[in-house]
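Protein Record: Sequence and Backbone Structure Tokens
======================================================
Tokens: labelled as protein backbone structure tokens, with as many entries as the chain has residues.
Task: work out the structure tokens from the sequence, keeping to the layout shown below.
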Amino acid sequence: MMWYQGEEDEDDDLMCSPAILARRASESWINVPPVEMLSTPQTLQRKKSLPDVAALPRADGGMSREEVSALGSARREEVRRMHEETEKLRANPLLYLVSPQVKDWFSRQQLVILVLFINISLGIMFFKLLT
């Protein structure tokens, strides 16, 4: 169903302008008529930006007191352990070298460290060969 419905009046300069004809040619796959052909303007419906609060599903009871208590205790224990670890590291910075994060980093960077070591060794050998 094409929006082009037949012969147009040759006297109408607006309908035969090159800009309108080019737009119609590029929009020939659209099934709605162009704006010039519409008798009544269409109203645009805006999409709502936020959902309707009344239509949202409600949680029936939330968490039980036991769950809240257990989660709170676990979080307090985790914060206490993190605080103790930071105090230890502040007191003895050499502990950073044996920390699990540093060990993980070394295990991930083994190939890069190997290539760096080989490059430095080759550089030293080349320099000794020249002197």
Q: What stands out?
A: DSSP finds four helices and no strands in the chain. Helices lie at 18-26, 65-91, 100-108, 110-130. Residues 66-97 form one domain.
